[in-house]
Amino acid sequence: MARGSGFHQETKAGAFFMATLVMWVVSVLWEMLFNKRAELVPILLGFIFYQSANWVIRSLLLNHDPLFVNTCVSLLHSSTTSASVLFILVNQLMISSGVNVNQMFEHSQLVEHTWPWAFTALCFSCGYFAYDQLDMLLHRLYSGWIPSILVHHLLLLVCFTLALYRNVTINYLILTLICELHSVFLHLRKVRRMAGFRDSSSIFVKVEWVLNWTTLVLARVVSHLLITVKLIRDASKFDKGGVELPLALFGMAGMNLLNTFLGIDLFKAYRREINPPRSHQNHHD
After folding, report:
1. Backbone dihedral region for residue 144 (phi beyond 0: left; psi -120 to 50: alpha; all else: beta)
2. Which of 257, 62, 230 is nearest to 152 (CA)?
3. CA 262, 268, 272, 273 torsion: positive or negative?
4. Are residues 106 and 205 in contact, defined by beta-carbon separation less than 8 angstroms?
5. Residues 239-278: pLDDT tens digits?
6. Alpha-carbon gap, residue 231 to 250, rounded angstroms
7. How many CB atoms lie within 10 A of CB 69?
8. How far apart are CA 224 and CA 97, in angstroms?
9. Taking Cα atoms as reference points, which of 78, 23, 14, 84 lies closest to residue 50?
């Protein structure tokens, strides 16, 4: 009975998140077709690109496990997104050379202006989160009554698209995507283990863990905390009565909370991988 109840709750959760995804799709298509927002087309292109990558990976690999294919596409997204974010930041730093670089991170620059390629990169990444949400729902790659991964994607889709519709805080959101540097090693570890390579004594695995922890702290925890502090310090500079500040603070609160849970889960995974159960090893000796 308990298992049946849990399955029923997961089905209800899946139906809810599928309904929110459909509403999001209708909203984006409305903006593009009826409000003639052609600049939002990269959202659709991002969705097509990552869905196509899913099909290609599925056809090329012998392992057709939906979770393995989904993780490979996630690794592709984190790699391309982190590369694009670094490109945008370096390009802007080069443009700002000879000028006070601190101006690059002033409130008006982060809220009202948009760095070159930032809008397109955010659209493309938004298309990925829509693809990933759909893929997880179709293949039931989630668990629990309130799946954290689906909540995470829904939160990002809402924050990203509202910013894109209003063309505000684009640069802020690009800064939040620095966390994809950590996601590269997070997904790499998952792909490695699913491919059967689990030798924790190997140099590759040890280096991978060093990079995993380093990027978790710097690219995810520290960067998101700094963005949160920046938002709080500049709270008085936001338009009074606007939705930008409450939405940004709510979004960052959610991200920081998810980062905490992610850090805990990663620590548990590290302990399991570095110190595998003795009884399990002896049983196979």
Report:
1. left
2. 257
3. positive
4. no
5. 888 888 998 998 899 889 989 999 999 999 999 988 876 5
6. 11
7. 23
8. 25
9. 78
Place of tokens 């950590």: 182
Q: What is the pLDDT of residue 278?
A: 59
Q: Helix, strand, or coil here: 277?
A: coil
Residue 144, token pair as written in the block: 């629990």
Enclosing H/E stretch for 227: helix 223-233
| Residue 89, amino acid | L
Rounded CA-CA distance 71/186 in Å is 10
* Amino acid symbol at 229: V
Q: Are 253 and 208 in contact (CB under 8 A)?
A: no
Residues in the chain: 285
pLDDT at 144: 79
Q: Which tens digits make up the pLDDT trace of 104-141? A: 889 999 999 999 999 999 999 999 999 999 999 999 99
Model pLDDT for residues 155-190, shown as the tens digit of each residue: 899 999 999 999 999 999 999 999 999 999 999 999
pTM, two decimals, is 0.90
Helix (H) or strand (E) holding 93: helix 66-95
* Furthest CA-CA distance within the chain: 68
Tokens of 130: 């829509």
